[in-house]
Amino acid sequence: MNKIKVITIFGTRPEAIKMAPLVKELENISEIENKVCVTAQHREMLDQVLDLFHIIPDYDLNIMKDKQSLTGITTRVLEGLKDIFDKEKPNLILVHGDTTTTFAGALAAFYNKIKVGHVEAGLRTFDKYFPFPEEMNRKLTGSIADLHFAPTTTSKENLLREGVAEKDIFVTGNTVIDAMNFTVEKNYVFQNSLLNEIDYNNKKIIMVTAHRRENWGKGIENICIALKEIVATNEDVEVVYLAHLNPLVKDVVIKHLGNLDRIHILPPLDTKETHNLMNKCYLVMTDSGGLQEEAPHLGKPVILLRDVTERQEAVNAGTVKIVGTKIEDILTETNGLIRDFLKYEKMSKAINPYGDGNASIRIAESILYYYGFEKNRPEDYNIV
Predict the structure, then answer these.
(1) Catalytic residue among 33, 244, 329, 356
(2) Regarding predicted confidence, which is higher, 373 or 245?
(3) Which of 31, 43, 157, 213 is labelled catalytic?
(4) Can you give the residue ranges of the UDP-N-acetylglucosamine 2-epimerase domain (predicted)?
């Protein structure tokens, strides 16, 4: 084998953020020929990341449809990848995390007897419906994968318990930390003019995102009621709520929080804007997966608006607090961080367990080792 032929597959903004630094790393390795295939499960948000990292896909399935279903996404990815695999005949495909693109990409490779590398492998909540469909997407992908790039030792231990051979698991750290080395700037000027007018030095800015399916309805409503109370009782607090465009989220947020002083409702920002807002804010409230990794890297405590997490390492490290969506719980934990400086300091200075910015290098070295281009197995990432 003169070169390892790899196809990197992703389709949503979160995948793209985390795969972009790996794509850039693979471009620099002479022993690897890497092609990029995007499914465009999310079209506009994906394109923002591609532009930011100057990535031009070799293949674009462009599968996104209005009101698309999980079944539709899966079948369109399976059908779209078949012709690409027939043409390229890759040695390895790389997928990331837990999206429907991830699972369908792994399944398509399995049908074609192509090896699969799973980036961000081994995350588990151990409840197949929380989060839905992500938990089963990552678990089923793990059953297919040949190479497992686990971000932490906890993820590795999850895989070992499921019967994955230790030789096939590489602990790498999380590539999202690599990505933030590209995106966060000390004196950043926002494209959104409102964000430039906020007084980050004298106000405690809370950045909020909440959009998961399990929070639709009562969950989102409770979050909004709690935020209204938090702002009303803390004069030094302002909220920036990045409201998902889905009407099941956006309409509820506007109903409860629209036209209120010190609450700013904005549409989702692009990656660079989001990371730099996070860098300037006081704390983060979210039901997102990725923000549990990103915010602690910047020293920002995370109030997690979910009942379970697949990122237990952050909870154990003290950077994330699982709160759920009960109004009283949100008020208690958030007000505690606003009013108790020692409590805030303890969370903000806890060590982030997710990486040192070299995950992409470790993944690339692991691929070279697996295919015999490197004699020595890369050392696993360990929290210092």
Answers:
(1) 244
(2) 373
(3) 213
(4) 24-367
- Residue 384 has a pLDDT of 54
Classified as helix, coil or strand, 199 is: coil
How far does CA 273 lie from the centroid of its chain? Answer: 15
Residue 313 is among the residues annotated as catalytic for this protein: no
List the structure tokens of 335: 């007000």
Which residue in this structure is represented by tokens 């003169």?
Answer: 2
Q: Considering only CA atoms, give the Rg of the chain.
A: 21
Q: d(Cα 140, Cα 111) in Å, to the nearest integer? A: 14
Length of the chain: 384
SS3 label, residue 167: helix
Residue-wise pLDDT for 56-87, tens only, equals 999 999 888 888 899 999 999 999 999 999 99
Closest CA to 120 of 264, 256, 293: 293
Active site residue 211: yes
The tens digit of pLDDT for each residue in 307-329 reads 988 888 889 999 999 999 999 99
Question: Buried (b) or exposed (e) across 299-323, using 16+ Cβ within 10 A?
Answer: ebbbbbbbbbbbbbbbbebbbbbbb
DSSP state of 384: -
Predicted confidence at residue 217, as pLDDT, reads 85
Q: Provide the mean pLDDT of the chain.
A: 94
**Annotated catalytic residue, options 60, 88, 120, 293:** 120
- C-alpha dist (Å) from residue 224 to 111, 257, 317, 326, 327: 45, 7, 28, 11, 9
Statement: residue 245 has pLDDT above 80: no
Decide: 107 and 144 in contact? Cβ < 8 Å: yes
Q: For this structure, is 60 an active site residue?
A: no
Q: At what angle do helices 271-280 and 175-183 cross, to 10 degrees?
A: 90
- CA–CA dist 237, 159 (Å, integer): 42
Whether 261 sits among the annotated catalytic residues: the reply is no
Known catalytic residue: 275?
no
Per cent of the chain over pLDDT 70 is 99
Among 355, 279, 353, residue whose Cα is nearest residue 319? 353
Cα 280 to Cα 68, 231, 276, 288, 321: the distances in Å are 35, 18, 6, 19, 20
